[in-house]
Write a structure and sequence with these properties.
Length: 236
């Protein structure tokens, strides 16, 4: 899971007739478009795990009116929070540059409540879950370092206590997330059966934590070691 923030960017200019008096206007949409161009230029110097993607949410109301307001929404992501914050700072610099270049006024709103931390799996808990999945007849694969992932608030949970967030197969074929194919796959019997098996493995893992003090001890020890070196935050 990638650390992330959602960001709203607004540009304000001055409306004018786009044909008869364009020189009297300040085009807010130009600010948004320049921001996208700046972000595209920045991507070449980003690490492979970084993601900066957005949409235009307001680009004006009529083709013959220079927009005095335009806005866009972005997600800024990276594999760890420290680098994600660096990318966020560089993104804001891209927005500031677009504002200066187009003569528009800029507002950047970072939604901290929608920010996701990166996930840090508990190895002892993950090992127990994998053991139970295998005992239930399911093949388990280790996540690759270059695994393509999104973001989830489970990362926020993992920053304060040991936890796991396993992924399960819902189809024999690889399916992109947020797609029509994914929507159709999740209602199939195979997906439902695999979800029930995974839930059973999670329940058995919870029993391990309650019944075997060594599992909890090792999970806490690993978490404390990670907190000591700054990999997780721990509880404040």
């Amino acid at each position: 899971s990638l650390a992330s923030n959602r960001v709203t960017v607004e540009f304000r200019g001055k409306s004018a007739h786009a044909a008869s008096q364009p020189d009297l206007g300040i085009n807010a949409l130009d600010g948004v478009l320049q921001l996208f161009n700046n972000v595209n230029a920045m991507r070449q110097q980003l690490r492979p795990d970084a993601r900066v993607h957005g949409i235009i949410t307001n680009g004006g109301s009529a083709a013959n009116v220079i927009p005095d307001y335009a806005a866009a929404r972005f997600s800024i992501r990276a594999i760890d929070r420290r680098y994600q914050q660096e990318v966020l700072r560089r993104f804001i610099a891209c927005a500031e540059g677009a504002s200066k270049a187009t003569g528009t006024k800029l507002t950047v709103s970072v939604n901290e409540n929608a920010g996701y931390e990166n996930m840090v799996f508990s190895t002892p808990l993950a090992d127990r879950w994998a053991h139970h999945m295998r005992s239930l007849g399911i093949q388990v694969f280790e996540a690759r370092d270059d695994e393509r992932v999104g973001s989830t608030d489970m990362g926020n949970v993992m920053q304060v206590l040991p936890a796991i967030h396993p992924y399960i197969a819902i189809s024999q074929e690889s399916i992109p997330g947020h797609s029509t194919a994914f929507r159709e796959a999740v209602v199939q019997p195979e997906a439902h059966e695999n979800a029930l098996i995974a839930a059973k493995a999670l329940a058995l893992t919870a029993i391990d934590v309650l019944a075997d003090p060594d599992v909890l001890r090792r999970a806490r020890a690993e978490f404390d070691e990670r907190r000591a070196r700054g990999a997780v935050k721990g509880r404040s």
